[in-house]
Amino acid sequence: MQKPSKTSSEHDTREADPEKEKRVTLISIKTGQAMTIPNTDRLGLCRSVSEFEKLNRIGEGTYGIVYRARDTRSDEIVALKKVRMEKEKDGLPISGLREINLLINLRHKNVVELKEVVVGSHLDSIFLVMMYCEQDLASLLDNMPAPFTEAQVKCIALQMMNGLQFLHDNFIIHRDLKVSNLLLTDKGCLKIADFGLARTFGIPFRPMTPRVVTLWYRAPEVLLGSSVQTTAIDMWAAGCILGELLANQPLLPGTSEIQQIQLIIDLLGTPNDSIWPGYSSLPMLEKYTLKKQPYNNLKHRFSWLSQAGLRLLNNLFMYNSTKRATAQDCLDHSYFTEQPLPCDPKLMPTFPHHRNKRKKSSNMPPAETTSVTYKREEFGQAFGPQISTVAIKKPKR
C-alpha cells in the first residue's frame, strides 16, 4: 500500500542544508510557540509583512520599533511592532515570545489587541500586528495646548484601573507602566500597551529581575533591591501617572536611582520599619544613606486637590506594598464619585496629527520649560536613567 504523502502542516524532520534553503520562524497564533524551519513556501501559518504598507514610524517600545501601517487586504490602519532580533541566532527572543503569549490570550477594552503575527523573508523580520491607536499619553502631555481637566484625568485613570484590574485578575504584572505605554483611540478609549516586560505570577510570588519599570515610575521596593515583585509595583506606577496627569508634569523625574529615592522621600517622607516591615533589611540600604525627612508633602504638592483625591494618592503611594491600593480599591474610591465626575470617554480630546506626523523627539523644537529642565523618558530603556530629548512643558493653570 502506498504510503500517504505528508500534509503541509507536518514538519519535515530531515536536516536542512543551510546554504541551499532559507530558514524562517513560524509562530502559532494559538500557542505562541515558535520554530525555525526551512522552505519559505511554508509561510501559510503567518501572513507576509509585504501585505502591509508602512506609513511612518510612531515609536519604540521596550523590545521593538512600532510603525503605523495599512493592511493592503482590508485597508485597515494598524500598528506594526517589529520584534528586536539583534542578538538572536535562531528563533524568537524570550521577551517576544512572552509578549505574544500574553497578548494572544488577553481581550479587554483597555488592553491593546494583538491581531496577528506576520513575517518577512529573513529571521530578523517578525512583526506583531496590533490595533492602531491615534495617540499616546506621553505625546499628548508634551503637545496639548492646555492640560487635561480633572474630569478628563478621572476618565483616563478609571480606564487605566479597569485595564490593570483585568491584568491582575489574570495573574499578570505589567512591570513597565508609564504614560508612553498608555494609548488613546480617537474614541477616547485607553489601551495599556507594551508587554515586553510583563510576567505572569502565582502565589506565593517568586523572585523576578529587580531592575524593571522605567525609572520615574519605579516603586521604592524595586529601587531598594527587593526581588519579590507583586501587582503593587503596577499600582505605584499608576499613582505616578495619576499625579503626572493632575500636575501636567512628571511627578518624580529622577535622573539616577539614588536621586529617584530622594525625590520619593521629599514627597512622602523617610520610611521606617514601623510603616514598612522589613525596610531596614532591603539590599540597597547597605549602599545608600537616606536623609531624614519626617513629613508627607503630597498635600502641599497638590494643595488644590480634594481630600478624597489626596487619600487616593496616599493609598497608591504606601511604602508597604501589602497595604498599597489595588486596582479594585481605586475603582471603588470615592474620588471618582465626587464632582467633577469623570467625563465620557467619547468627549476626550483627540489630536491624531501628534502621533501620525510628529517628528523624532531629538528634532522637536525646544518647549517652554520650568527652571529645572526635565526630559521625558518617553521611549527610554527600562534599565537605568537614560532619557530622551523631549522637554516637559511648564504646567499651564
Automatic annotation (TrEMBL):
BP terms from Gene Ontology? cell projection organization; regulation of mitotic cell cycle
Residues at which ATP binds:
K81
Compositionally skewed regions (Polar residues) per UniProt? 362-373
Which GO cellular component term is one of those annotated?
A: nucleus
Q: Where is the composition biased (Basic residues)?
A: 352-361
According to its UniProt record, where is this protein located?
Cytoplasm, Cytoskeleton, Cilium basal body
Biased region (Basic and acidic residues) positions are 8-22
Membership in a protein family: Belongs to the protein kinase superfamily. CMGC Ser/Thr protein kinase family. CDC2/CDKX subfamily.
Q: What does this protein do?
A: Cyclin-dependent kinase that phosphorylates the transcription factor ETS2 (in vitro) and positively controls its proteasomal degradation (in cells). Involved in the regulation of actin cytoskeleton organization through the phosphorylation of actin dynamics regulators such as PKN2. Is a negative regulator of ciliogenesis through phosphorylation of PKN2 and promotion of RhoA signaling.
In its UniProt entry, what is this protein called? Cyclin-dependent kinase 10
Natural source organism: Patiria miniata (Bat star)
